[in-house]
């Protein structure tokens, strides 16, 4: 029996200025900063997590903001576009809101759905789509009321350097179903309600280059620790070398790079983000894993201060 992921767990990207990153994802998009920690592999850099009220799997975008970092180039071997889903009837609100912040928007259609496409402050490509699927967000911030708020991920467009191989991984390894082909895109569906529709250009995409404004990796959901071990065996069975199980405090992870060049992760739904701070205080304090706690003073001194703030456009 083929294993099946429910869809996207989280997406992790590179950014530059950390305060500008917070201003865009919390201030403009109205997401909650659910965790403020560091890159466990590079403790001089923040690792910031934004999602719904609890940082549920399928809602989480994370960033490594490194001041002064070079701008990347979106291309093959990356997530090309990250899709967010909003409630039915919310796109006009979002078009007006983005324009209020001076953000250029374009309209597009794909597989019978209308999309509002734009980029963040670093050039990361984003889009919004209306769908009934998925629980509504309970979070409200700035000028974004809960009834218009982003629910979480709708999916992604994967830019592959070897499209045929990437598409085979989606079906044969991750257990997705191919459900359509249109205008050079092939669509796949996972079983969850969020982060479940994955589009892949049929043609290979020229290689990109990592840097601010590009995605580092995409993570797929494993429902628990036992299934995570099964995923490690399943991925290895298909000939991919994994990192093995890696502890990330708020989930366990394993990584492998598929033949289209995209770094895939499989991450566990548990334990979640309320393991080291109360649910109503998520993201308020810098959280460090135990092995970095003795170095807190030096780590904090090296990080630029950041705050979640209501932007001036929402104060008028």
From TrEMBL:
VOC domain: residues covered: 7-131, 152-269
GO MF terms, alphabetically ordered: dioxygenase activity
InterPro entries named in the record: Extradiol_RC_dioxygenase (IPR052537), Glyas_Bleomycin-R_OHBP_Dase (IPR029068), Glyas_Fos-R_dOase_dom (IPR004360), VOC_core (IPR037523)
Keywords for the protein's UniProt record, in alphabetical order: Dioxygenase, Oxidoreductase
Annotated protein name in UniProt: Ring-cleaving dioxygenase
Higher taxonomy: Bacteria, Bacillati, Bacillota, Bacilli, Bacillales
